[in-house]
Amino acid sequence: MRICQKLSTFALMNYQLDIHTHTLASGHAYSTLQEMVKTASEKGLQILGITEHSPSIPGAPQPVYFRNTHVIPREMYGVRLLIGAELNILDTRGTLDLEEFYYRLMDVRIAGIHKFCWSGGTRTQNTDGMISAIENKWTDIISHPGDGVCELDFEPVVDAAYRTGTLLELNSSSLRPIRNKPAAIANNMEILRLCRKRDMPIILGSDAHISFDIANYQYALPLLKEADFPDELIVNDKPDLFFQFLDNGVERFYTRVPDSPY
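Above: the chain's sequence. Below: its structure in C-alpha cell form.
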C-alpha cells in the first residue's frame, strides 16, 4: 500500500493530463463537470477530458447531450478541457453506438467494450471486432482493452493500434481489486510487453467517476514498474505527443453544430 501511495503521489506531480473521466451525466458518476475541472486544476493538470458514456450504457446521456456540448467552455480554472465520449463497441463487427454526426462534434473519442452492451463471440471474432473499432478513423483511444470483459488476442490488437496511431489505455480503475477483474493484470502486462516491443506509446486513464479520482493512477503504476515500461512511451506528461494522436492533430473546440435546434 505504501508503494502504491508513493507512486500515486509521483504521478500527481508529473502527469499533466487525464483524458478518460465521467461526470454525473454518465448516470453512475458523482461529480459535476465544474467540480471535475476545478479538481483537475487543484491537482495541477493542464488538460482534462470529459468522456461521458454513450447511450447504450444504462443511465447514459441521450444523443442530444453530445449535440449540445458546444456550449461548454473549453478552458476553465486554467485547465484545457476536451469534451468527448466513451463510445461502446457493440459487437464483433466493431459497431459503435453513435453516428458519425456526433463524432464530428467531439474533441476526443474513446471506444471500449462494456459488458452491459457487448455482443461477443469467439476470441478471434472478438479480436476482429476490436480491430475494426481501432480502424474506425474517428477512434482516438481504446479504453481498458485488457480488462477481461471478453477474450482477445493482444498481438493483432496492438499491431492495429500501432498501424493506425490509436492509443491503447492502461486503465487504473479496472485494476482495483474491488472491480474483481481477475484477467486484468496479466492482460495489461501482455499489452505493455507488446507496446514496449514496438516502441509504441500508451495512455494512462483514471476512468474517474468522482472528482477525487482524477489523475489517480495508483493501480496502473505498479504494472508499469513491473514491466519496466519506459517513461518516454507514456503520453500523460507529454501533451504535445498526445495531441499528435488525435485525428490530424486538429483542434475541434469551436465546431459548428449543423442544423441543431440547441
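Confidence is low (pLDDT under 50) at residues 1-13, 248-262.
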